[in-house]
Design goal:
This protein is α/β, with parallel strands linked by helices and 163 residues long. It has six helices and seven strands. It comes from Candidatus Nealsonbacteria bacterium CG10_big_fil_rev_8_21_14_0_10_36_24.
Length: 163
């Protein structure tokens, strides 16, 4: 069986943050990305960036070792990743979104997560190869962006690490 390090080289996994406004959420994304062994976080638009005390508090230091890059516009990083043959998956509730458990992930893969209120922007959704969502069973229409990222990230890692 291949080591996780060997698999990571062959199956890159990125997360693209589309205008996530909360610094605490950005910090928690770094912490979750570390747990998932995400290769890089792309912070886009209004996303806060390290160094920041609020990011550090919720990241517990993960912002120091998880690789990240900033882009002014989310579509710019999507176009770059598409040129690199990365499979682009947006996490958003739409009438045509696929349940996250039904996706057959292809790597390298970039998971786009969106703004806490507006979600993933329409211009970014149009560039995605697939749009997935989490089924909701209660009164609320969505989960916190970090919680949703964690659930879907672990689902992607089932394929990535064969567990």
């Amino acid at each position: 069986m291949q080591s996780k390090k060997e698999m990571k080289k062959k199956l890159p996994f990125y997360v693209v943050c589309d205008n996530i406004r909360s610094l605490e959420n950005i910090g928690s994304i770094f912490r979750t990305a570390d747990a998932l062994r995400v290769d890089k976080i792309f912070l886009c638009g209004i996303c806060g960036k390290p160094p920041s005390p609020k990011i550090s508090k919720s990241a517990l230091g993960a912002e120091s070792w998880v690789d990240w890059e900033y882009y002014g516009k989310t579509w710019q990083v999507i176009e770059r990743l598409k040129k690199e043959k990365v499979f682009i998956v947006a996490l958003e509730q739409t009438k045509n979104s696929l349940c996250y458990t039904k996706l057959k992930p292809k790597f390298p893969l970039a998971l786009i997560i969106g703004n806490e209120v507006k979600g993933v922007s329409l211009s970014v959704l149009k560039r995605a190869d697939k749009i997935i969502s989490l089924p909701m069973f209660g009164k609320k229409e969505s989960l916190n962006v970090v919680v949703a990222f964690g659930i879907v990230g672990y689902e992607m890692n089932k394929t990535r690490y064969k567990f």
